[in-house]
Amino acid sequence: MTLPDVDPARLEEEWSADKEVLASLAENGDRSDIVRAVDVSFRGSEPALDRLEEDAEELGFEVIEREEDEEGEISLFLGCEQTSDEAAIRALTKRCLQIELIYDVEYDGWGCTAETGLIS
Q1: What domains appear along the chain, each with residue ranges and CATH number?
Q2: CB 94 within 8 A of CB 15
């Protein structure tokens, strides 16, 4: 599958938000070199999310769950294992924005827990 080019302005907009999340993780003692579960979410129509769910594994993700909010908007949560360093998160965001273009869904961000390397 050929991945489309992402609008650089859109990538920078997302990267600005990503940097805030990374700063918050760092404040909580995160060691960005530790591989951990990272989830991403997409909103969209049922047929678009169905297609994305079918292709998730090919795109490097596993399906976590599908959720409907109070307004009836459906979100699909996907997960992968990776680090939270800047290069890895930037690559993840770019891949998600490419998915947004291919599947006609809306990328809604990523999340993970801070990993300190300490056993609690």
Answers
A1: 8-112 (3.30.70.970)
A2: no
